[in-house]
Amino acid sequence: MNIHVIQGIDRARQSQRSDRTSGPRGGERPKERYQALTQKSLESISKYGKVTDDDLFAMRVVSSVLPFRTNSYIIENLIDWDRIPDDPVYRLVFPQRGMLSDGDFRRIADLMTRGATRQEIERAANDIRASLNPHPAGQRELNIPAEEGEILDGIQHKYRETVLFFPSQGQTCHAYCTFCFRWAQFIGDKELKIASKDAVGLHRYLADRPDVSDLLMTGGDPMIMKTRVMEGYLRPFVDDPALAHVQNIRIGTKALTFWPHRFVNDDDADDLLRLMEDVVRAGRHVAIMAHFNHWQELRTDVVREAIRRIRDTGAVIRSQAPLLANINDDPAIWARMWREQVRLGIVPYYMFVERDTGPRQYFEVPLVRCWEVFRNAVQQVSGLSRTVRGPSMSATPGKVEVLGVQEVGGEKVIVLRFLQGRNPDWVGRPFFARFDPQATWLDQLEPAFGDESFFFEQAPQG
How far is 188 from 420, CA to CA, in rounded Å? Predict the structure, then answer.
């Protein structure tokens, strides 16, 4: 191929990129300014809807314990203020009274009412947080590796093929989900945070482990980072042959809901997309692990444009979310969301069970009911949406899927199997639990058929 042909191809590629990154009709896209709202600005939401003084006080109480952050895009575009407090996105981002137990709520409320100092309230909040299982499923005790006696901060390696990395620059979000199982990352307690900015250490760890095929960048939200920071983590997968065995790069993010402008008209949005395109062209599978909890999150023009632009890089968008009481515990919601995602080119991936952490009592749904919602939702969609798996618990021994309820040998049982496991031999293995219509997590289930323990409990978890 001669030099003129090569130059022509390069010009064509540049033109395609310009088409993809320009605004409507080739003009400049209007810039949207990100505006965060925190506990200090809660009163300002009253201009959007009928939020009572009691509601605002409850929000201040709950947000003194659990992290709160939202932004103007969500408030102005995703919430139906005529439906509050029942609007699902409102409950997704704004603290509600039932997210704390009655005793914990009264403890903080009494301190605030009598004018306690910030230090007094924070001490009480820390006591409550310690009781909310801040790091479920053995995240700190079992998942963080060590080399030569040194803990490798910011890395979790629970499953043989997959390494999780928590870049310190991405340990916040454009907004916080009220159900978030990573809430401990956001409360300012360094003892609870998992994070690292050691990109070199990450790449060295991966280079030494040829069994690892997948890197999952998680948080917080890595998409909160500037592209120049993301570049330091991802560029070696383009250039370094020592990382060739890491074929799949996953990026967990809620940005498509909370700030889709990150991919459309942030100052470095085009640079971010070009970086993703470079990683794809280097032979990697780039997967945006998008968290969508409700179809309302998909209805704006900017999120649809963001989805299109990401897909144009060659990256794949996969969707996942927990089943949540008070937000999406309805088969019709999931079926509508999956159909819309497929229409937009998103691959439905996981329905999760709400984890046993934080305000679980407000959001948790019994496992049997989770399975019923999943089954009824899947029955309403075509095979293109049935890529989704679940309901799945990310429990201490691994990812456990609830397959259903059956009668076996005259006993009514819950049928489960491992989708992923600390021990790879567990993957795909079914097992049975006694029927319990109230159980909401794996550790509440008992073995069926008179067995004293489940098979995975008979082996070390580490």
Answer: 32
Return contacts of 15-23, CB within 8 angstroms, 24+ apart.
17/270, 17/274, 17/277, 20/273, 20/309, 20/312, 21/269, 21/270, 21/273, 21/309, 23/265
Q: Give me the pLDDT at residue 43, please.
A: 87
Q: How far apart are CA 426 and CA 429, in angstroms?
A: 5
Alpha helical stretches, state H, 235-268? 236-239, 255-258
Query: What gap in Å lies between CA 461 and CA 291, rounded to an integer?
Result: 28
The rounded Cα 423 to chain-centroid distance in angstroms is 24
Tokens found for residue 359: 């305000």
Q: How far, in Å, are 124, 213, 288 from residue 164 at the CA level?
A: 32, 12, 14
84: Cβ contacts below 8 Å, ≥ 6 apart? 49, 50, 51, 90
Which contacts of 2-7 are long-range, i.e. CB under 8 A and separated by 24 or more positions? none
Q: Are 255 and 262 in contact (CB under 8 A)?
A: yes
Single out the residue of 287, 275, 320 nearest to residue 216, CA to CA.
287
Q: Which two tokens stand for residue 161?
A: 């093929």
pLDDT given for residue 4 in this prediction = 38
What is the Rg, in whole angstroms, of the alpha carbon atoms belonging to the chain? 23
Helices (H), ranges, 174-319: 199-207, 227-234, 236-239, 255-258, 269-281, 301-312
Cα separation, 425 vs 117, in Å, equals: 53
| CB-based contact 397:411 (threshold 8 Å) | no
pLDDT tens digits for 286-329? 999 999 999 999 999 999 999 999 999 999 999 999 999 999 99
How high is the pLDDT of residue 331? Answer: 98
Work out the number of other CB atoms within 10 angstroms of the CB of residue 176.
26
Bridge-based pairing of strands 146-147 and 70-71 is unpaired
Give the position of tokens 């079992």: 142
Distance CA 167, CA 196 (A): 5
What is the tens place of the pLDDT at every residue in 347-402? 999 999 999 999 999 999 999 999 999 999 999 999 999 999 999 999 999 999 99
DSSP-derived secondary structure for 426-451: GBT-EEEEE--TT--SGGG--BSTT-
Strand partners, 408: 411
Tokens found for residue 7? 């130059």
**Residue 140 pLDDT:** 65
